[in-house]
Here is the input.
Amino acid sequence: MNDSQTWDDTLTDLDRRRARVREMGGPERVAAHRDRGKLDARARIEHLLDAGSFQEFGTLVGGEVAADAVVTGSGLIDGAPVMVGAEDFTTLAGSIAPGSNSKRYRLAELAVRNRVPLVMLLEGAGFRPTGDHYGRTPTDLLAQARCSGRVPMVTGVLGASAGHGALVAPVSDFSIMSRAAAIFTAGPPVVKVSTGEDISKEDLGGPQVALASGLIHNLAETDTGVLDEIRRYLSYFPPSAWSYPPSRAADDSAARRRTPELLEIVSRDNRRTYDMRTVLDTVFDGPDWFEVQPEFGSAIICALAHLGGHPVAVVANQPQVLAGSIDAEAADKAAHFISVADSFHLPIVFLADNPGMLPGGASERDAILRSGARMFVAQTAATTIKLHLTLRKAYGFGSMVMSLISFDNQVGTFAYPGATMGAMSAAALSNASHAEQDVAAALREMELRASYHSAEHMGFDELIDPVETRNALLLSLQRALCARQAPAQPVTRTAIMP
Here is the structure.
């Protein structure tokens, strides 16, 4: 009998190699990782995806370096396919070599080719000094950039993430980090050598830095919290820009209903503030809407919600912050959010209540005009369904960035009676012109009549009672959705700006 190898021998060898890869950095390093309250890379993927749906590729890349320190493959989230990659910190600190770069490139390439979302889970040290020369080899960032505006891209930062690997976070549509995570261009040891600065990883790129700078959008306390929020975020989006967002089954919460609560929430006195979040709780299907970037640019609320079971993006002024004035951070946040919503055909609902762009020396030094222009271009370029409601006031350029501008392709524009608008408020105009008391009173009266004057000239489709708010928006949305009688048009847009 020949000593030729049998299938049993071959498959035993394959199983042995796979088993070694599944051990990642080895039992001791995996245990130490878990002792710090973290999930390992494979456990993160297991938690993120529907049970039993993970299909790995590139398992044997790296040879003795398990999976070359990044686990890559595809799976399902709520039954919908996604591509997912997770840096394995237990294997050479999750660093990147030619093999893992190729896996990361292939991951993003397949996301666009298959038109499915891409999720990256980061905890790695950047490039690994292997001595190998890349030559004319494509970087994974090239493929990741090609995903932008075509498939939803989400990044979770679950530990220290540095250098090249960290760059996918600002390229992504949405990024979220855990409380124990940090993200930076280079870690503390490199900073110490390069600049002499002695700084901890928390002070260099922890949540208090990454969220305040706008680099990372949201925060969760734990690994599982990050992964649960990623699943929740993706539930509002279609698989790609070539399809439409999925509507959920209609129920009682999705029905038409009056909103008398708004008469108590939204004071007729423009000088009194209120929490716009309570308006969202009342108008949309429930209070379970998803806020994006709540710790940055808080003068505007950017949220994902459902209206009549249909996913929508909400851009709303927050009167509790700067009296609703739009500062540079709020405008930058909204510009990015609008571009993401438009790329994936989410209808955008604008809820305006602002006295304009934030004036003043500090605001000008923050380049408020540039940021405001960025938001203006994002919303005027948007081709998705747009709805607008002015609750109390919308002045100057602050009204235009909130889609209060004629011939801007809105499918419904509304205002409450008594809503005030114009180049500036009566109070500001009175002060600027040094008006006498009787003239100032006349200006205030003109301001109060502005909504009726605008309605007489079709400045709005209709002035509505606050109790009609939900129904007015819902009926307009349902009508606009009738335009979706064919698949989404071919995607030719450019990438979304970070």
Notes: Residues 423-434 have pLDDT under 50 and may be disordered.
